[in-house]
Each structure stands twice: as C-alpha cells, then as structure tokens.
Write a structure and sequence with these properties.
The structure is a single chain. Strands 1, 2, 3, 4, 5, 6, 7, 8, 9, 10 and 11 form an 11-stranded antiparallel beta sheet that branches. The N terminus and C terminus are likely disordered. This protein is α+β, with helices and mostly antiparallel strands. Helix 1 runs antiparallel to helix 3.
Amino acid sequence: MKTFALHLLICAATFGLMINVAQAVPIVFSGVDPGANSFNPRPNSDAAAAAFDGACARGPCKLSVENFEASPVGPFSFLRTASGVSLLGTQSIRNTPLASPDGLSGYNTTAGGRNFLSIFGGDITFAFDSPICAFGAYISGVQFFGETITFFDGTSQTIPIPNSFFGVQFLGFTDFMGGISSITIHANSDIIGIDDVRFCECKSGEVAEPVSLALIGLGLVALGTARRSRRLA
C-alpha cells in the first residue's frame, strides 16, 4: 500500500511539473544605456540583444528582424512590414528624429539605416502571421515609468519597459511555451522610437512537445509500476 501511495505521489508530481512547464515564466533580456543618443555607444543594449539572439538560435524557433527600412515613411493606422507583420495603431514611420538631441524622442538604431517606428504616445500592436515564441526591440527615448509590453500566452503577461532617461535600451523576452499571436507596446504619453525588432516564429511541432511527451512518459511508467505493485500485494 505504501508503494502504491508513493507511485501516486510520483504521478502527481509529474503532472504538477507538466503544468509548471506549460505556464513557464518568460525570460527577459534587458540592457539600458541611459542618455545615449544615436552617436553614442550602447554596450548594455547591444549585449542584451546579442544574448537574446543567442537564446533564439538555441530555441525551437526561427528568428526574423524588422528594421523598417522598406516601410513607407509617414503616418499609418495599419501597416504591413517587409517581414509580413501587421502594425495596428495610429503611429508613423520616420526617417528623422522629432527632437534634438535625438535621444529625447527616439531614433533609428540600424547601422547605415534611417527609418524607425515612432510612437507618439498611446499604443502599437504587432500582429504576427504565425505564432511567435520570442520578441525583442531597441527602444529609444523612454523617459517615464509605467510603459509596458503586454501579450497573451495562455495567461495575460506584462513586461515593464525600463526608464532609459532619454537613452536607448534593448528589451526582449523568450517564451518557448508561448504561441503568441500579438504583442502591444504601451507608451502612455511618451514619444519613443522602436527599431531592429526581433521576433521568433515557433517551428511547428517543436515547441514544448519533447518535454511534454517525456513527462507524460514518466507518468505512464509510474502508473504501470503502481498497477504491478497492486497485483503483487
């Protein structure tokens, strides 16, 4: 009887582990260079971007980058980017900063590029053709607290955007259990720039399945052992 109870505990622990894996907390990559304008180095932001890219390269997903260089300059309420992502929100693509120094309101971060997504307060939503498991971007000009990235991966998730004090930052997250169809950036009343956006499309049949199948297998083994123990008792 004790053996049977032990196996039941193993099954319960396995099931609990499966639930915890399915509700995995996103891993955040963040580097901030306070006060950095477009002509300043950005070592912290670049290091965070490199770490994010490395995590995506090791993960079950396909990494894409959108730098807005092929997007038409000007305001929009709906925009399809060159990478096939839809932008929803009354915002604009700019090729010149709104203020000087450019860290005040955001700027292009692409080497040799000019265009960037300009957020003049409010929100912008990225809607993806295929579910994603990771998202990241360079964000410049943030000067307030309370700005966020929100998305739904089975539960509602919110990631705070650090105050870069008119500088630049890279902020990204991986959520390989996710299957996220859209993310929304809330800029409140701030004017910010977004550029070099990374997103990682989930590869069909690879996200979380090996882990889940292994855990299910462990549960079935435990149940089989429990049944054998009852017959021998």
